[in-house]
Design brief:
alpha+beta, 4 strands, 39% helix
């Protein structure tokens, strides 16, 4: 019984790891697509000493499968010294994705 429990536990851990890695890769791909869609917004907000970070957020689950997702880009200062105090990030652009991953809208802030 202990062997069966151990095998089941290891299987669950392996499955969880694979799902987490897949979600992380999917999130990185989504942020990359959003960066391309918001290119003009990001170029207009570009300043020396600042960089853009992207953050994705699931806003809704679709009935037929998939998710409505919003990717927001923030402008933050580049800091090379440690410790680096980070001021509040300023939103620059927002990209909304539909259930099938299609780009619904791009908004410059």
């Amino acid at each position: 019984m202990k062997k069966l429990l151990t095998i089941a536990f290891l299987f669950c851990m392996l499955l969880t790891t694979k799902v987490t890695n897949a979600q992380s890769q999917n999130e990185n791909a989504l942020i990359g697509r959003a960066r391309g869609a918001a290119h003009e917004c990001l170029q207009a907000a570009r300043e020396p000493g600042y960089e853009f970070i992207g953050q994705s957020q699931t806003t809704s689950i679709c009935f037929a499968g998939g998710f409505l997702t919003t990717v927001t880009f923030y402008k933050v200062p580049v800091c090379h010294d440690e410790p680096c105090p980070r001021p509040i990030a300023v939103p620059v652009a927002e990209v909304n994705f539909g259930c099938d991953g299609q780009i619904l809208s791009v908004t410059c802030k």
